[in-house]
Write a structure and sequence with these properties.
The complex is a heterodimer of chains A (228) and B (241).
Chain A lengths: L18 H5 L1 H4 L21 E9 L10 E6 L22 E5 L6 E7 L4 E2 L28 E2 L2 E7 L7 E7 L3 H5 L2 H5 L10 E7 L2 E5 L2 E2 L9 E2 L1
Parallel strand pairs in A: 1-10, 1-11, 8-9
Antiparallel strand pairs in A: 1-4, 2-3, 2-7, 5-6, 7-8, 9-10
Chain B lengths: L35 E2 L4 H4 L30 E10 L9 E6 L24 E5 L5 E7 L4 E3 L5 E3 L2 E6 L8 E7 L17 H5 L2 E4 L10 E4 L2 E3 L15
Parallel strand pairs in B: 2-11, 2-12, 9-10
Antiparallel strand pairs in B: 2-5, 3-4, 3-8, 6-7, 8-9, 10-11
Classes of the chains: A mainly beta (228), B mainly beta (241).
């Protein structure tokens, strides 16, 4: 008899209330490592616009989730990820990955980085069908393929006590209306009124660019989460 | 650029659902809408890369990495195993991080107020990078069980939290290791969020007498499986098969 010899993925368990001990011990209240990982996402040499991203994670009762930990994964300003398959070389010191924790009293979080660039979209396995000029872009009916680029975005992964499997979402930018309008992932969201949950609002504060991105795990305007 | 080879779809039946009322905190922290399934792009098949320069020499040794004037109190254990993917291939050079309570069941965290004492010589976290064969090991003390507020008399089985990266953001995983034979495993609402008994068994580390260091340290084996990746069959190039 034929047998498939695949292994099965190890199941997830919640990160729990003390995730900071392992992943951000400084926040847990003690110095552990010479170097905690994920505090500098872009590094000093990254090109592009310096930005700050701030927000809260809000639960189904409307309360901030104060013990959440987020990880950010992003491309550089040229749309390249710091990875062997990421599209090419990136600036020295650019990792594109960060770890973000909240203020335990308020649930507010924030991180500094650079704004990523356009990112190559999936290419279909067959020939790319050129879009007719008047065609309305609709990745839902086109099978999420055949577009040229994804709008700038930051991939986010959210873990906390009470979250059994880490939640994946994406943060897009409010000042990228044109790119967002043709982004294949935004367009995959059938409910157009939910798409706005992925758009961070650009503001300025003391001459710096700050994007606001609140994530609602449940309830009104529940954020779109992805199975990636 | 060609479309990158994707990782196998995550088998959600093997994972806990988001909404698990017996684990009360999940009720308000679980999305009500379905996840939207993405075919993977470069954003999902890439992920952060770490190297030995990121780590300190004692990061994997929880008996020594926070010791002030003595070893921590507790049963000395080795936890070791391999990180594999669903194709049974090693996942090399990937970051594995752990955290845990001390042998009395107390975390070194300003939010933990359990009456068991802090151990001055125990921090409770460690990290390492797998070798070319996907192998990793830690040395630590066995954590204690502890009570938690869910129902009024719930106790967590002894456990070690694991965080694993893999080669892509889609393989990212946080889970918990349990110890073979612990009678609290079937009673724990967090363990029992997992609907599949075989999957719970996969989180249960086995006593490994062959890896035990006689007269010194007892060993437990814990292999971890991350999502596998399809090869690029049926694309223009037959590579990677």
């Amino acid at each position: 008899m034929q047998r498939l010899a695949y292994l099965k993925e190890t199941p997830s368990q919640t990160a729990g209330p003390y995730v900071h001990i392992g992943l951000a011990p400084g926040a847990a209240g003690f110095d552990m490592y010479d170097q905690e990982l994920g505090w500098d996402i872009a590094g000093p040499n990254a090109k592009g616009e310096r930005i700050r991203v701030e927000g809260r994670v809000i639960d189904g009762t409307g309360s901030p989730v104060k013990d959440v930990l987020l990880e950010a994964w992003q491309a550089n300003s040229e749309g390249r990820y710091a990875h062997p398959e990421g599209g090419g070389a990136v600036e020295d010191g650019f990792r594109g990955w960060g770890r973000v924790i909240t203020d335990f009293a308020t649930g507010e979080w924030g991180f500094d980085t650079i704004k990523p660039g356009l990112i190559p979209a999936r290419v279909p396995l067959g020939a790319v069908r050129p879009a007719a000029e008047e065609e309305e872009v609709d990745a839902f009916s086109r099978g999420h393929q055949g577009l040229r680029a994804m709008a700038p975005h930051i991939n986010l992964w959210i873990v906390a006590r009470g979250i059994n499997v880490g939640l994946n979402t994406r943060m897009y930018f409010s000042d990228e209306q044109e790119a967002n309008a043709t982004d294949p992932v935004i367009n995959l969201i059938e409910w157009e009124n939910r798409r706005k949950t992925l758009i961070a609002e650009r503001t300025e504060r003391d001459g710096s660019v700050v994007y606001r991105f609140d994530i609602r795990i449940q309830g009104e305007d529940e954020t779109v989460f992805f199975d990636i | 650029m060609t479309t990158p080879a994707e990782y196998y779809q995550r088998n959600r039946d093997r994972h806990p659902p988001a909404y698990t009322p017996a684990y009360k905190t999940s009720v308000a922290r679980s999305p009500r809408y379905s996840l939207i399934s993405l075919q993977q792009s470069v954003s999902e098949i890439t992920g952060p890369v770490f190297g030995h320069n990121d780590l300190g020499a004692l990061d994997h040794d929880l008996i020594r990495n926070y010791a002030k004037d003595d070893d921590p109190i507790g049963e000395r254990i080795i936890v070791h195993g391999r990180v594999l993917d669903e194709n049974a291939r090693a996942v090399p050079n990937t970051l594995v991080e752990i955290w845990q309570a001390n042998s009395g069941g107390r975390y070194r965290h300003k939010k933990d107020t359990y009456l068991a004492p802090i151990d001055p010589n125990f921090g409770g976290c460690g990290r390492t990078i797998t070798d070319e064969q996907g192998y990793y090991f830690f040395r630590t003390v066995k954590p204690g069980a502890y009570p938690w507020r869910n129902m009024v008399n719930n106790w967590r089985p002894a456990h070690i939290h694991f965080s694993i990266f893999g080669a892509s953001f889609s393989q990212r995983l946080i889970t918990q290791l349990y110890f073979e034979g612990d009678p609290l495993i079937p009673l724990c609402p967090i363990v029992q969020t997992i609907p599949d008994a075989d999957a719970i068994d996969a989180l249960t580390a086995r006593l490994d007498m062959n890896a035990t260091i006689p007269l010194d340290t007892i060993a437990y084996r814990f292999d971890i499986v991350l999502r596998g990746r399809r090869s690029t069959l049926f694309e223009n190039r037959l590579e990677g098969n």
